[in-house]
Amino acid sequence: MIYFDNAATTKVFPEVLDKIKIWSQDFYANPNSIHSDGQRSRMAVEESRRYIASFLGVPEDEIIFTSCATESNNTIIRGLAEGYPEKDEILISPIEHKSVLNPVRYLSKRGYKIRFLKVDSQGIVDLDDLNKKITPKTLFVSIIHVNNETGVVQDLESIGKVCKERDVLFFSDTVQSFCKIDINSDSVDFFSVSGHKINAPKGIGFFRRKKDIQLTPLLFGGGQEFGLRSGTENVVYIKALSETVRIWNENRAYFIKKLKDLSGKFINGLKTIIPDVEIVSENAERSPNIITVIFPKIDAQTFIMALNTEGIAVSSGSACSSGTPSPSHVLLSYGYSEEKALRAVRFSFGVDNTEEEVDILLEKIKDIFGKLSVFY
Ligand code: PLP
User: Which SS3 state, helix, strand or coil, does residue 182 take?
Assistant: First the structure.
């Protein structure tokens, strides 16, 4: 397969993969044991934490390792609710990932008032609406940094400024932006990251929590990760994550230029083949690797299956809900009709994709579109 589904997950960098076996032997010991082998594992965890913290410009003890972003998002949302019982309103954007929407829905069943923020047709959250909806009862504001379906980037600095002025906590899911778009750490009290979106393995992630903010953990046990995430640390994958961040850090300009070049080539080529194709949020600031396209006439499921038959992997909606032919909640909140939203296909590029692969993609799209459009 030629893989253009990097917003769903990425392939592990080969140099990280090679080291995982060695690290599994070197750092097999429990980092909570006081013997030398245990302490070697502890050092590996703390060096990794230090590296990631310095990359983000935050204190080391504000980085909490978890198994994935879903765990991080649940820990933050449910942990805040327990920490501040006097506040019972939550403000969220309607374009959040399900790992944010569903824990918030869970809280709404337990009496919390959930208020959705307006977004415009390009998918940008309305700051005036945010300002109007904050009340003294607002527990936190949750706004995704880069949307996983459309790649649209929200202005964390401006949102953070409003939240700070109104004395409200600000949480952002930064899963799709981490390493690709700068995260203004000062502006955000909590943010979540997942390793498998940046070429680290699945099963490792972290969140950032500003130190002085109270958070009740989801898991109680041995008190690891500053008491916020009990359970023996996944030393090898923590090392794999920090090594992956190091590779991104050292190649960042090159990687980002490459992603932009691949996306630019794809958009230009696509418009030549199908002039009335629609690029979602074309005029908004978007991440360099995610493009959602609405094809004329042909529904997304048919297009994706036809591409799959030709050896090309892409998605519609979020990967987590792929296979469910219901329209994306993100596109509906941008104001798209259900029918149009069901024609949206997401192409997401990775740093290992090549220009030649984009040429093949465009050729296949031309063939498929030519063949299928006669039936509509
Ligand atoms: N948030 C966003 C924006 C995502 O794209 C995803 C994955 O699709 C997640 C959260 C969940 O990440 P994980 O698979 O690490 O739980």
Answer: coil
Q: Please state which of the ranges 49-58, 76-85, 186-195 shows the lowest mean pLDDT.
A: 76-85
CB atoms within 10 A of CB 94: 16
CATH fold match for the domains 2-8+252-375 and 14-247: no
Listed in sequence order, the DSSP H helices in the chain are 14-26, 36-56, 69-83, 98-109, 127-133, 156-165, 235-273, 300-309, 329-333, 338-341, 355-373
The residues spanned by each domain of the chain are 2-8+252-375, 14-247
Query: pLDDT tens digits for 294-353?
Result: 999 999 999 999 999 999 999 997 444 445 579 999 999 999 999 999 999 999 999 999
140: which residues sit within 8 A by CB, 6+ positions away?
77, 80, 90, 91, 168, 169, 170, 171, 189, 190
Is-contact 232 222, C-beta < 8 A? yes
Q: Which of 71, 145, 148, 152 to mutate to test the pocket of ligand 1 (most atoms within 8 A of CB)?
A: 148
Q: Looking at residue 319, what is its pLDDT? A: 44
Query: Ligand 1 centroid vs 347 CA: distance in angstroms?
Result: 17
Q: Report CA-CA distances (Å) from 188 to 98, 127, 132, 320.
A: 20, 15, 20, 26
Class of domain 14-247: alpha beta
Q: Is 271 left (phi over 0), alpha (psi -120 to 50) or beta?
A: alpha
Distance from CA of residue 44 to its chain's centroid? Answer: 26
Q: What is the CATH class of 2-8+252-375?
A: alpha beta
Pocket of ligand 1 (CB under 6 A): 68-70, 97, 99, 144, 148, 173, 175-176, 194, 205, 318-320
Torsion of CA 158, 74, 285, 202, to 10 degrees: 140
103 alpha carbon to ligand 1 midpoint, in Å?
14
